[in-house]
Amino acid sequence: MWHARVVKTRPLAKALVEAGRVRVDRRRETRPGAVLRRGETLTITLNDRVRVLRVLGFVEKRGSAERAAALFEDLSPSPPRPSSVRDAPPDGTDAG
User: Fold this and answer.
1) pLDDT single digits (tens) 2-38
2) In angstroms, how far is CA 8 from the centroid of its own chain?
């Protein structure tokens, strides 16, 4: 997760795994050093959202954000759109 820039630090990646907030192919992962394989799907519960990532590749060293983005396919659900004044009907009445 750290090499792919999903989290900022290795200790944070380790803490997420140990807290049970990481799943590999729907199975809770409890070992921070677990081996991943191409094609496996990671589900990572972060504070404000859930990331769903399919593993596409690996690197030896942490690199640029562009290089990291090539390591996974992001299957995460879109975050809910916040309601705004633009969503209100033009006449100002409540449609609901």
Assistant:
1) 557 678 888 998 999 999 999 999 999 999 888 889 9
2) 12
Q: Which of 94, 52, 54, 95 is nearest to 73 (CA)?
A: 54
Rounded Cα gap, residues 16 and 47, in angstroms? 10
The pTM of the full predicted model, rounded to 2 decimals, is 0.71
Residue 54 tokens read as: 């399919």
| CA pair distance 76, 80, nearest whole angstrom | 12
- Give the integer Cα–Cα distance in Å for 89 and 70: 42
Does 43 score more than 90 pLDDT? yes
CATH architecture of 10-74: Roll (3.10)
